[in-house]
């Protein structure tokens, strides 16, 4: 399966289980791998045969900068659902969300979650 990758997208959101995270917010970095067949796009050189990276960014931005969630696991799940709804040619997606400097005891560069989802018949 071919892939389109969007790396290091940065957004500001209010996700977390601690009240200060919901009030102050923080930066989130998102990497996405989109799995689809790109042969037709490679032959036609037509964006209609591929997935518009700008639209992928906008879908991701709406979720990350939208309604606050307790868990970044939920944010990742919501991104995957929105991408499957927006892009009929999308067969699978891998999403990594990185949360720099989490407000938990200890010293961390970041914490993150990665999910992989495939298109289901009911999507």
From TrEMBL:
SMART domains per the UniProt record, alphabetical: FolB
Molecular function (Gene Ontology), one example: dihydroneopterin aldolase activity
Segments traversing the membrane: none
Signal peptide segment: none
BP-aspect Gene Ontology terms: folic acid biosynthetic process; tetrahydrofolate biosynthetic process
Enzyme class: lyase
Origin: domain of life: Bacteria
Associated pathway: Cofactor biosynthesis; tetrahydrofolate biosynthesis; 2-amino-4-hydroxy-6-hydroxymethyl-7,8-dihydropteridine diphosphate from 7,8-dihydroneopterin triphosphate: step 3/4
Organism lineage string: Bacteria, Bacillati, Bacillota, Bacilli, Bacillales
Keyword Lyase appears in the UniProt entry: yes
Protein name: 7,8-dihydroneopterin aldolase
Residues of the Dihydroneopterin aldolase/epimerase domain: 4-117
